[in-house]
Design goal:
Structural class: alpha+beta
Strand content: 15-25%
Largest sheet: 10 strands, antiparallel
Helix content: 25-40%
Radius of gyration: 25 Å
Length: about 500
Amino acid sequence: MASRTSQVRDSGLGLTFWVASSAAAASAALSLGYYYWSRYSAEHGGAADSTHAAGGDAGTPRSRVHWGRAAAVWATKAIHADFVSLKALRNLTETFDFAGKGGKEAIETNAHIHTKSGHPVYVIVLTGGPCGGKSTGLSHLNERLSALGFRVYASPEAATILISTGARPTFTGAKPWTVDTLNIFQEGIVSLSISLEESLIALALSRDEPAVIVCDRGVADLRAYISDDVYSQALSQFKLTPEQAFQRYDAIVHLVSAAVGAESSYTTANNAARLETAEEAAALDEKTQKAWKGHPRHFVVDNSTDFTGKIRRVTQAIAEVVGLPESASDVRRRFRVEHVDALKCIPDNHVASRVTRTYLKSKQWASEGVVACVTMRETDGTGENYVHRLARPSDHYQVERMLAKRDYETAIEHHADPDASLIIKTCRTFTVPGIENGKETNLFCSLETYEAPAKLKGESFLNTNAQSLSSSIELKGAIGAHIGKEVTSDRAYLEPVLAGVFLKA
């Protein structure tokens, strides 16, 4: 019989890779379910077949529900128990310290988890009412934080995963859900959320490097849908209190639903699990804000600006938590670089990534002045990530969503614009001292050197972030001597134009 250590290791790794591949979620979930059902049967003396021994019929719906429910509840608790054991195992081997003490060289940060070498591992929740912009915010943060040297992990929304499998709560019709079924569903959300988060924390700690885990909703989001008593009861199944649920996260960023202040932009088209009307979405948004009330770092990002400004304010909130450069979340400015030896003038600790952008063809998008593309970013030491972007250059509207590799490849295979050139470039990101409007500051910069299209091969541009388009900027050090003409507002230097994509004026 396998040792408990090997069982914990195997189940932990199994869940880790299950989380890592959303494309295989259904088959992995089936394997996981069979694994825990088998363990349930083994540890309860073949309970799945005990109905036969008692003279019953295990094939009847009632019997299947009886032992199926028991196995489901047991499996939910067993998953959590495995992660508790996994934590204990890591504590024994001094892999990490959940109390936040970290290793001997732990640095002072807002993170409550540190690796054995002292690197912070931040756990941040993106939440809000339906159609608030979480997907775009997650994609934007992934790109920005990766460029700054963080390994970024995205924990998907547990409720959406469950609903997408067919487990959609139903309260009308011939067979509405019972209270017991709903409670099992809520416990499943808690269990899956914890499992996803703990798997990613384990991966981050094993890598022993700075990391940010961005969660699409957190455990306390359940409070927007159920009573405090039911919520506390669901947490108690995993030996958690509401206060401990809060303590799992370093910050909460709430993106207010478009149904509150941007009603014309509210839609259910981009999420199959979203069924709420605008009025229902607004009510849920208010409840979700209240659910996280009391967390020490609870940021609420409303719709008082356009969507680009909203995503910018999300980045500002994260900057406060993880210590991004103070200008890293404002307006992007773009300059030509006059000499290729600028590569020798940037800090040695820059982060390099190779970006390949493919533009997609769609008559509908083109008629609305929207440009669609998919992007693969390969970053030193952090692997690849894939993004789908819809952008309207005329009013700076932009929506992004992270993709699985399979979806990225499918988009290229079936929708790539044959008349548009690929954009291929190497981006080197870094921070340098500078002066903005006469005040010394640190500037977040990206030096981009193009491989394609052919007319840009070998040319470089420097992007930096400023408080506004009219700010005066001066970069200190050798890099400043190579900065040429600013092309921020020059339409000819927009990447879709450079790629040969027609843009409506």
